[in-house]
Amino acid sequence: MKIGIIGLGLIGGSLGLDLTAKGYEVIGVSRKKETCDRALEKQIVTTAGQNLELLSKTDLIFVCTPIEAILRTIESIIPHLSPETIITDVGSVKGAIASPATKLWSNFVPSHPMAGTANQGVEAAEYNLFNNAPCVITPLPQTSPLAITKVSHIWETVGCRLYQSTPELHDRAVAWISHLPVMISANLIYSCTHTSSPEVIKLAQALASSGFKDTSRVGGGNPELGLMMAQYNRQQLINSLREYQQNLDLLIESIEGENWEALTNILQETYQNRPKFI
Ligand code: NAP
């Protein structure tokens, strides 16, 4: 299979690195010439350029741009493709993409590899990013089974564990384990830096160690990604935030009321349940 990748940043670049290393012919397209040059230097791709026409002979194209550019990008490549070409994406939300993208291109398979780091751009691309990471395919009833098999095969080739769900179920699940944690972690950093005493803030910054490093990691990452999660998975994120707020109130009440038994029960439950997620 001849593979095309549009957007050679963290996700597209890392995918290209693994596929090129495995001997695939990988054609990369990016907006900037510097990105294309660097992608060739780093052996992310075998061919690179800024012109979408380069993708006309590819069998499978991964759209790895920011979420807001995915549909626009699909629209722009369509004039260059033959009908057998499969298009997939890597966007972190699926409800806003799966149906409109399938309307644009019937041979479209929505996908989302659950892997990442705090870095972005072509320099952030790394080998084995997807090794043992979950990848969710969210097909619609009309999605071609052959196209699903081909897209799944490539994700498995780079080490992903494959799952399938509807776009809606995907968006509800990732609101809980990906988008809500970004907002909670961001709010933690925000609250710590806006607390009233500058003296306390200064000392807290000096004392922050591994616990704060863990809990602040996702909230201190790429701001554009967090914004897009909120914009494109808005309702599911609001639902999760509201439920979270109710549970936060329960925590506050138990501490305020010195209800140590209630607090112990919550903490024992979270101690037991964490391994079910990671
Ligand atoms: P990234 O490192 O910023 O890379 C984005 C790439 O897209 C860059 O190569 C950039 O090209 C290009 N690009 C940026 N804006 C564009 C636009 N308006 N039109 C066309 N191309 C554009 O981002 P990323 O983290 O790889 O994220 C890419 C996609 O992966 C997103 O849809 C995101 O939801 C999804 N995703 C991200 C993660 C994560 O943890 N980061 C995890 C799973 C999925 P130039 O360098 O040439 O400007």
UniProtKB/TrEMBL annotation:
Gene3D superfamilies according to UniProt: 6-phosphogluconate dehydrogenase C-terminal like domain, NAD(P)-binding Rossmann-like Domain
Single biological process term from Gene Ontology: tyrosine biosynthetic process
Gene Ontology terms, MF aspect: NAD+ binding; prephenate dehydrogenase (NAD+) activity; prephenate dehydrogenase (NADP+) activity
InterPro entries found in the cross-reference section: 6-PGluconate_DH-like_C_sf, NAD(P)-bd_dom_sf, PDH_C, PDH_N, Preph/Arog_dehydrog, Prephen_DH
Keywords: Coiled coil, Oxidoreductase
Pfam families associated with the record: PDH_C, PDH_N
UniProt superkingdom: Bacteria
Parts forming coiled coils: 227-254
Ranges of residues in domain Prephenate/arogenate dehydrogenase: 1-278
Family (UniProt): Belongs to the prephenate/arogenate dehydrogenase family.
Protein name per UniProt: Prephenate/arogenate dehydrogenase
Organism for this UniProt entry: Cyanobacterium aponinum 0216
Lineage: Bacteria, Bacillati, Cyanobacteriota, Cyanophyceae, Oscillatoriophycideae
